[in-house]
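testing teh design pipeline on a random one, pls ignore if ur not involved
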């Protein structure tokens, strides 16, 4: 996979842990020569991730409703608003990765699948640094998980503690088989 949409903390000021996670994942993206596609503006952990990627040979694409700083090897695309940026991200990426600090709930983590009206086919990877997502899933009821991830999407979900493992698994990803729209006939 060459175009990865990364959900990262979009606050201007991020914690040292969130910045370290953004730097580590950005470096892995760059080393795998993937295009890091992020939602702007290019500040805080978002900026750190893109700089780490481009610093080791990667490229970046920032989809933002407001003008933002320009960086070498980074394309800035100004769009109408955040929903337009999200829809464009769905159209441009082959996979999504959520890194720690980007979301506070399962609802937020699974949001990329909703950006295309619930029809997104891209896999979604959760980078489980310090068991951030394991803790969310452990405390969620089965009904809550079912609400966020339909059965047809479960094969699209990847979770790992290692960014290189995530990128390898995304590269090896094959869409799961889906159920047929009509019943089988015994005739």
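output:
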């Amino acid at each position: 996979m060459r175009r990865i949409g990364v959900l990262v903390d979009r606050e201007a000021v991020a914690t040292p842990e969130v910045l370290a996670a953004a730097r580590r994942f950005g470096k892995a993206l760059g080393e795998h020569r993937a295009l890091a596609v992020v939602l702007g503006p290019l500040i805080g952990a978002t900026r750190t991730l893109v700089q780490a990627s481009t610093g080791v040979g990667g490229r970046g694409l920032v989809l933002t409703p407001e003008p933002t700083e320009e960086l070498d090897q980074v394309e800035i695309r100004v769009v109408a608003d955040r929903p337009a940026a999200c829809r464009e991200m769905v159209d441009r990426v082959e996979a999504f990765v959520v890194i720690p600090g980007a979301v506070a709930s399962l609802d937020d983590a699974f949001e990329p699948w909703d950006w295309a009206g619930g029809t997104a086919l891209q896999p979604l990877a959760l980078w489980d640094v310090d068991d951030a997502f394991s803790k969310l899933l452990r405390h969620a009821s089965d009904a809550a998980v079912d609400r966020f991830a339909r059965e047809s999407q479960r094969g699209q979900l990847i979770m790992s503690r290692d960014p290189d493992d995530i990128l390898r698994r995304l590269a090896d990803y094959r869409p799961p088989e889906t159920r047929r729209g009509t019943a089988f006939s015994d005739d």
